[in-house]
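Supplementary Methods, section 5.1.

A reviewer requested that the exact input to the structure prediction be made available. We therefore reproduce it here, unchanged from the version used in the analyses.
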Amino acid sequence: MTDQGIEFQLDQILDTEGIRIVGPVSLYWDTPGDACVLIGETGSGKSLVAQSILGLLPPDFHADGFLRIEGKRIALGDVTALRAQWSTTMALVPQEPFRSLDPTMRIRRQLRQVKGSDDRRIDAALSELDLSASVGKAYPFQLSGGMAQRTLFATALVSGASLIIADEPTKGLDEDRAAQSLTALNRLRAEGRSLLVITHDLDLARQLDGRTVVMKAGEAVEAGPAHELFTSPRNDYSRALLQSDPANWSAPAPRIRPPSRTVAELRDVSFGYRAGGPLFENLSFTIDAGEVVAVTGQSGIGKTTLGDVLLGLRRPTSGTVLWEGTAATKATVHRLRRKYQKLHQDPGAVFARHRTIGQHFADLADILGGESLSLRLEQLRERMKLSARLMERSIDEISGGEAQRLALMRILMLDPMLIVADEPSSRVDPIVQRDVFELLDALRDQQEVAIVLISHRTKIVSSFADKVVRLSS
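The structure derived from this sequence is encoded token-by-token as follows.
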């Protein structure tokens, strides 16, 4: 390793009971511009690895090991020294944009606070990520999920850090936007910035073509150059992970569905904000019991908003939304709310940070009854492959993929008639992604649950949807 190289040695991450959660994991970047990519199962500790480098582990966790960067050897237990490297030698592109951006501050002002930034670098970063200058004047809540994700990426572009840590940098982005993120990552490498990328996007890992590390149950089970690992994986789990990529899913069998009742319908529905033009106009389609309707289109085109209109969370500018043939008025929505549910793109939107996951599920006791609650909770938890220990933790102490599966569990306990699933697999690894879609597939076949799938993934849409609604500008 050269003097300019970076070395990271994580011996272990321990919880308050002294139980090892993650480790050992060894990463290194021999020369400036090298890339290291972590892939693997949801909840395997990939994000905890990044947090240990940055000194951002939850208070109940402790890391042993060291980071050597720019000639400094820093113990992972020295949180103050690690945090002193922020923006100067290390920068983070976090996984959850709306938890990371200040909701009270305009975007350009937030970018100006990054060390090493100036207006020229900010304008160049926004342009490279296809974000208009007007984004700089916006507040985070005025951005779509995809726009907020690209805004976070802009913070890394304007910084002068030598190590950029990107946690799921393509999550929630359409294929064109994901390609822009890849271009931006490669530009950083060309500038001599080293990358640590954590991703479930196997195509991104393959194209970065750096050193790839596969993680399972808190350990690195295989590592090597991407072109070797993706071609000839040695570990059984690595092979299963790569095979579960949606690109390898088999073509769906033709579905013959008998006539069914319509659970929701849009008639000439339009929606727009006062400050701009319409997001979509004169949309009409039906959703039958057991049917999957996919909504696709570019990031920021209005897919999530359409889902909110369908669920009565936003009022259309014009047109009518019907639930079971009845206009979705305030009274109708109140009466049927339990049957019309949303699986949010950001699970942080449904779990309060100051409460444990178990407390959230206990809230359902008044609806389901105590005995029914316990039995169904155990059945769904096992089906989702989730540990019972997660019930004792808050949303900040679990992975994004675990949070997404827990959010789906809570919806399924209510026996929904329709689920609007907003990028339901964006936070889970390919194996769990396949399991989630198999579960949704069983729901539509066995319980005739209707699903509105909001997704950018062409392969997933073509494999799963009965019909497709494409939004365009």
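Residues 126 and 154 are 6 Å apart (CA to CA). These observations are discussed further in the main text.
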